[in-house]
Amino acid sequence: MQRIYYLSLEFYMGRTLQNTMVNLALQNACDEATYQLGLDMEELQEIEEDAGLGNGGLGRLAACFLDSMATLGLAAYGYGIRYEFGIFNQKICGGWQLEEADDWLRYGNPWEKARPEYMIPVHFYGRIQHDHDGVKWVDTQVVLALPYDTPVPGYRNNTVNTMRLWSARAPNEFNLKDFNVGGYIQAVLDRNLAENISRVLYPNDNFFEGKELRLKQEYFVVAATLQDIIRRFKSSKFGSRDPVRTSFDAFPDKVAIQLNDTHPSLTIPELMRVLVDIEKLDWDKVRPCMVEMFRGPYPAPRRRVNSPEICLLGFLGQQKEIHFATEDTCPWINMAHVDIVGSHVVNGVARIHSKIYYYKWRHSLLLLLFKDFYEFEPHKFQNKTNGITPRRWLVLCNPGLAEIIAERIGEDYISDLDQLKKLLAFVEDEGFIRDIAKVKQENKLKFSAYLEKEYKVKINPNSLFDIQVKRIHEYKRQLLNCLHIITFYNRIKKEPNKHFVPRTIMIGGKAAPGYHMAKMIIKLITSIGDIVNNDPVIGDRLKVIFLENYRVSLAEKVVPAADLSEQISTAGTEASGTGNMKFMLNGALTIGTMDGANVEMAEEAGEENFFIFGMRVEDVDELDRKGYCAKDYYDHIPELKQAIDQMSSGFFSPKQPDLFKDIVNMLMYHDRFKVFADYEAYIKCQEKVSALYKNTKEWTKKVIKNIATSGKFSSDRTIAQYAREIWGVEPTRQKIPAPDDPRE
């Protein structure tokens, strides 16, 4: 049997209780039991802390993948770090983001089990020693990796996989030499230095942090995991911890390792080191083993090459140099190059993403570097469009919608989401249209009540809920949304007696603590809200709300209530997106650019059922060639000029008129993401949204078409493709017998 190992520096799991009840079919029984005890299940669920061990999309994707791997009966393990402090809690004070430590383990974690019997030493620092026995790594600092296991149940198939997270512990002899010179207290305090490795998640999304601690975290998870993989491979007898296997011939057939982004890239050199230096395999033996396991058939250099930074690729009768390191005085290692050479497959996460990375290298230096790899070995590059688990992102978060779908097409769609296509037969069904609209309205009322209780804001539940929730980043263009809000506000002020379709615009997301522009964007959103929400002329026709501390458990409340999903990144910048899929599955319509998975979502639903606007990737390339001049748009579009002038004059910050000068300056002179270039198309597209929303029936028909065509975006489909096309295993929906089932 082949085992799958999914390595990720982030697993954004959220809460576990309800998800476990859904997957084990225990929800009704647990509801009844808590009722009998005089408890309320919903209150109980709200007490659980989110396991916020991720920043955003990458960490949440890993969590969805674990659910799908268990549901598809794969022998798969998730490996990561048990951060003591996850993604910070966001507080908004005076319109500014403040960060609070996320002490999620304060009251313990009932879902995990410490496994000290599998504790593993990880080495840092030290030096290399050559002797007659070969190469030794000596005088190292040792940190112990203590594993904590969390069960990952599949959907009603009696399969339970494991997520193993490593916690750093200092060995008892840590800094022992200091004990003997009277430094006992300091030596004990210094144990923290070792244990800091798993202390905190780096809070950056789509941003590289060149810090020693981050590098230590990456090596820590890689080194511990590889030792664990090899131990398990050697123990061939069920339940045995004694090493039994001595030959590694079968290793590539028994082990598949998937790296989530470049963060665990050190897996590749570390596995080479372990096999040669620890397991004493010949390099000539290791090379084909690596080639088969990672199937990287690049002509690998001998173990000790003259220049370890260069790999010579032979193709087209030529030799081509691919550099792993820069030639600076302080060289940088290009981990993407290490990954490509050391892996048997490299995949993008949406069709456009894969295409941009591997085919469209014309105008990008980064992509030009990948061109040589692609030309040498095109079959190495694949696409695996991301997906989301329908268990958490429909059954758990939107039971009303899940139920009315099941009434029409049965419950099998929950583990075979393509079956949603059967709903196309109900697009004209008056009863179904009514039911879909009713569930959406109920979700909106519930979310309105939550906002009133938690944030003390009262909103109009009959307004269009226009929602953009994701990390705050210039490329995601929350600023474009802000410009629409200001334009909409100005139009109401200009014609106060005209009928406008009322909107509640909600924006949520965290900014990396050191990302000045992102924090300024949050302040701008809250400042616009202060003006708009308190203007009596506007009334309840427009409300602007910043959703504080956006996280998995808040997403589970906001996604089912959304009417409009904002996916407005500059074309060519969002790898895939997965929030877009959650909104589509839950009955929101999308306003978006042709970026990431939006392209495939529009293709599935039909472009006529999507609000597509703005530049395509080719247009962005063309604009780069010509030169983007924001001032041209500012000079020629009066409403845009008015909005920018209001921002720069202090209209939204009367006590500090120059507060937003950095934002205005960036938009006018340094905007890499070309906000103004898409402004006009975005405003026109928003007008189409308002026009359609007036016609509830036609709007709801489009909603049904979107739900019915969202099946492709199940992470079950994604994982089935990984399994068949990369890992070489066959997924199954077969239910294995429960432990208490009578055996034949």
UniProtKB/TrEMBL annotation:
The EC designation for this entry is: 2.4.1.1
Could you tell me which InterPro entries the record lists for this protein?
Answer: Glycg_phsphrylas, Glyco_trans_35, Pyridoxal_P_attach_site
Key word Protein biosynthesis present: no
Q: What's an example Gene Ontology biological process for this entry?
A: glycogen metabolic process
Q: Which UniProt keywords apply?
A: Acetylation, Allosteric enzyme, Carbohydrate metabolism, Glycogen metabolism, Glycosyltransferase, Phosphoprotein, Pyridoxal phosphate, Transferase
A Pfam family the protein falls into: Phosphorylase
Highest taxon of the source? Eukaryota
Keyword ATP-binding part of the UniProt annotation:
no
Please list the GO terms describing molecular function.
glycogen phosphorylase activity; pyridoxal phosphate binding
The prosthetic group or cofactor this protein requires is: pyridoxal 5'-phosphate
Annotated SUPFAM superfamilies = UDP-Glycosyltransferase/glycogen phosphorylase (SSF53756)
Which reaction(s) does its UniProt entry say it catalyses?
Answer: [(1->4)-alpha-D-glucosyl](n) + phosphate = [(1->4)-alpha-D-glucosyl](n-1) + alpha-D-glucose 1-phosphate
Transmembrane segments in this chain: where?
none
Give the N6-(pyridoxal phosphate)lysine positions (modified residues): K582
- Cross-referenced PANTHER family: GLYCOGEN PHOSPHORYLASE, GLYCOGEN PHOSPHORYLASE, MUSCLE FORM
What family is reported? Answer: Belongs to the glycogen phosphorylase family.
Subunit info here reads:
Homodimer. Homotetramer; to form the enzymatically active phosphorylase A.
Q: What's its job?
A: Allosteric enzyme that catalyzes the rate-limiting step in glycogen catabolism, the phosphorolytic cleavage of glycogen to produce glucose-1-phosphate, and plays a central role in maintaining cellular and organismal glucose homeostasis.
This chain belongs to which protein, by name?
Answer: Alpha-1,4 glucan phosphorylase
